[in-house]
Amino acid sequence: MLTRRLLPTHRLAAPSTFLRTLTTTQAFQNAQSRSPSLADITPDGAASFDAKLQNFRAKVAAAQRQRGQQASASLDKDPSKRKGAFSSLIYGTKEGQQMDKEIELSFSQVLARGKYVHSIVFHEVKPDKVDEYVELVGNWYPRMAGMEENKVNLVGSWRTEVGDCDTFVHIWEYQRYTGYHSSLHNISQHPDFPAFDKKLKTLITAKKTSLMQEFSFWPTTSPRSLGGLFELRSYTLHPGNLLEWETHWRRGLKARREVMEGVGAWFVQIGELNTVHHLWQFADLEERKLRRERSWSVEGWGDTVHKTVPLIQTMRSRILIPMPWSPVQ
Fold first, then answer.
1. pLDDT at 5 over 50
2. Highest-confidence segment of 4-8, 180-184, 314-318
3. 279, 317 in Cβ contact below 8 A?
4. Would you tell me which CATH number, out of the four given (3.30.450.20, 3.30.70.100, 3.40.30.10, 2.30.110.10), belongs to the domain 112-322?
5. Where are the domains of the chain?
6. Cβ(159)–Cβ(168) under 8 Å?
């Protein structure tokens, strides 16, 4: 029941806010009890989605450049950190190194893999209790995520519209496993938790939780509001194939990202083992279809599919709609 890197959406204009920080209450003040649905999406929203996406990516790039400039300034102040001419010949020019660094920051924050633990929670809600569930969770989750002492961030909350209908999906972020334990303990000690937990149990038929880590080459997005819908693709791999999967997807993501917008990718460490979750965002179902088809024209994608399909036991696709309080919209 806990969460992730969440910056209020109104702060995204400042490049520095693209660093992961704890959630603030501002991002969750407008939670509503009405459950959204596919019917809220119109077929003419692709242009608006693309414009918001380009704006979001521009801000991310600006934040990366700012960090690069700060790193360069630090080197200028401390000559002992500079490498010699021979090193430049071997490892490339300063400009080339900076370009490589920006590419790496875009797709592969290596240290992120061990810095955060994510949980993915599935609630199967009774069909006649959906509105009550939305009201209950829509008030409780933002409240818990907004309390700094809980040290937990909500990545997002969604309702399944195609797939396991009336199943709600929540992804939370913690500071390693110590943060996970700390968050669970703090929230369980809240005076209102027993009432929340008791009520929740009357609204759902099942609850499933797995603990995951994000792939090092695909850090989870910061909060944003692009609109549209999401697709959660879940893969059960043959045991022992996770490293090979990561190797191929590290190359394939660059091709996919040219035509599709990823939200995050995680592999389960505790729970449904050998499971990988990829989360994508699209303007609508037609755009999803077109962009997936367009992927095949991008060099490298066909090879990724050819090499990853044999690694898969089962796969599942869910179409999700974000909840009003979800930081990623």
1. no
2. 314-318
3. no
4. 3.30.70.100
5. 46-107, 112-322
6. yes
